[in-house]
# Entry
Amino acid sequence: MKHTLTCVECPMGCEIEVVTENGAAVSVTGNSCPRGKAYAENEVVCPKRVLTTTVRMTDGRMLPVKTNLPVKKAELLALMQTVNGLHPTAPVHIGDVLVKNISDGADLVAADNME
Ligand code: SF4
# Structure
């Protein structure tokens, strides 16, 4: 199967073509550097994204949160169920770990300070 995608790893936006067989990438062309090859292979085999959202604190304020590493795109909805159950109490500081290893070694961390 042939996939065409635009690399988002840098502003050049190379158009990359990936051929897959049995769910594995067997050919990557159009990338200008190794980062693009890795991006394209991951994107067609197991796309990942940084989860960014907000959680309601116990005092009602909304705290921005994110994963510190990309997580499997297919898991995002399930992870949101965990995230939606969180209600941290102030003070919270940027980078505080709210859920250790929420998925594949990625932690859910605070993305802002709430005193
Ligand atoms: S392949 Fe390399 S040069 Fe091209 S957009 Fe991706 S990161 Fe940038």
Q: What stands out?
A: The chain has two helices and nine strands. The helical segments are 34-45, 76-84. The beta strands are 2-6, 15-21, 24-29, 48-49, 52-56, 62-67, 71-72, 97-103, 106-110.
